[in-house]
Automatic annotation (TrEMBL):
Signal peptide as annotated in the record: none
Annotated Pfam families: NamZ_C (PF20732), NamZ_N (PF07075)
Organism: Rheinheimera maricola
Record's protein name: DUF1343 domain-containing protein
Cross-referenced InterPro entries: NamZ, NamZ_C, NamZ_N
Superkingdom classification of source: Bacteria
Biological classification of the source: Bacteria, Pseudomonadati, Pseudomonadota, Gammaproteobacteria, Chromatiales
């Protein structure tokens, strides 16, 4: 009999969103009488990687999450006389202040004077001239463990460019706040896009360093055997460990609740329904202007992080407030309920079906919803793929194998 529940790693069910100090282990997880070792991100372990950078020309793919304590990694490396040559910026920019989908321009970093190259927009991959100035490039960005979050797509293109130009890559690892879960459909390569590059589940349960090793090991880039890849794992880390991000990873994921709901609400981007962009609680509410499943009232407006005309801007909406719900893993009930409401009202729900299929990594999820399958039936359809993925990823895991 197949499991009809998401595969869960470790012991974390609802505790994944418990408040805890950034970069520390959860004291409640330690056996009685034992001291708790301090968790350290890869970037915080300077002794592990500074020797590798001496005498090297160094590039960085980083953003506002790339911190060592209160300092940005760029400033830390410069203070240690590392020869930083250039900075690459992903979606949302080097400072993390660009809207989703907004153009990120190349230029010069105002603080350091270093060349700043955009990897979001027309050029998603570093070009040969940029890479030939480097001996090693560092990837240090906080991910949230959801396939359609594009930082791992930027990492993919960085790994590809490095393999082609014989530049070493160093990944400084960070915890995955959704790391306890492996769930959702696997991406089919015909639906590959920048919001889904790899044949992995929507929730893959891996850190960026583990995923980088898998991209190389499974030859998901060409010339993978030529890539020199090294990683600095998070110390004293378990996949089920509560971890509250010290810096919001992007403008519309401002807190742990938004990060926890993101896997479930991201699909609404392919519908006319608002998920709170343009409010103080993005990815923490669902609403619509013509009919509703709830009585929670909110009005999206143009705000920093949602200045590019958020859906239903300046329209009073009714819906559901999710700020206090117990959010964890992938919950399809929101999508199914709203689809059923739109069907009852004889309105089209998936107004961007091609984008929905890119987000899902397959057209099967959309078709299953339109055919009226239950959540249990939908989950049953991807269980075998999840089991095979769990075996496939095993050689690349760095934590609690």
């Amino acid at each position: 009999m197949q499991l009809l529940l998401p595969i869960l790693l470790g012991l974390c069910l609802v505790g994944c969103q418990t408040e805890t100090r950034p970069d520390t282990a959860d004291p409640a997880s330690a056996p009685a009488g034992q001291s708790v070792a301090t968790m350290q991100t890869g970037a915080a372990q300077l002794a592990e990687y500074l020797p590798q950078l001496q005498g090297k020309r160094v590039g960085l793919l980083v953003n506002q999450t790339s911190l060592v304590g209160e300092q940005h990694l760029v400033d830390v490396l410069l203070a240690h006389n590392v020869n930083v040559v250039s900075i690459f910026a992903p979606e949302h920019g080097f400072r993390g202040d660009h809207d989703a989908g907004a153009q990120v321009d190349s230029g010069t970093d105002s603080k350091t004077g270093l060349p700043l190259w955009s990897l979001y927009g027309a050029n998603k991959k570093p070009n040969a001239a940029q890479m030939q100035q480097l001996d090693v490039v560092i990837f240090d960005i906080q991910d949230v463990g959801v396939r359609y979050y594009t930082y791992i797509s930027s990492m993919h293109y960085l790994l590809q460019a490095a393999a082609e130009q014989n530049v070493a890559v160093l990944v400084l690892d960070r915890p995955n706040p959704n790391g306890a879960y492996v769930d959702g459909p696997l991406l089919e390569l015909e639906f590959q896009s920048f919001v889904g590059m790899h044949p992995i589940p929507l929730l893959h349960g891996m850190t960026v360093a583990e995923l980088a090793q898998m991209i190389k090991g499974e030859h998901w880039i060409s010339d993978a055997e030529q890539l020199t890849l090294s990683v600095v794992p998070v110390s004293h880390y378990r996949r089920d460990m509560p971890y509250v991000l010290p810096v919001k990873p992007s403008p519309n994921l401002p807190n742990a609740q938004a990060v926890a709901l993101y896997p479930s609400l991201g699909f609404f981007e392919a519908t006319p329904v608002s998920i709170g962009r343009g409010t103080e609680f993005p990815f923490q509410a669902i609403g619509y202007d013509k009919f509703s499943l709830g009585s929670f009232q909110f009005t999206p407006v143009s705000t920093p992080g949602a200045a590019l005309t958020p859906p239903l801007m300046n329209k009073p909406l009714l819906g559901t407030d999710l700020r206090q719900v117990n959010a964890h893993g992938l919950n399809l009930s929101y999508l199914l309920s709203w689809h059923a409401l739109f069907k009852q009202q004889q309105q089209v729900f998936f107004t961007s079906p091609e984008f929905m299929d890119k987000l899902a990594g397959t057209n099967q999820l959309r078709l299953q919803i339109e055919q009226g399958l239950t959540e249990a039936e939908i989950r049953s359809s991807w269980q075998l793929d999840l089991q095979q993925f769990m075996l496939q990823r095993q050689p690349y895991l760095l934590y609690d194998r």
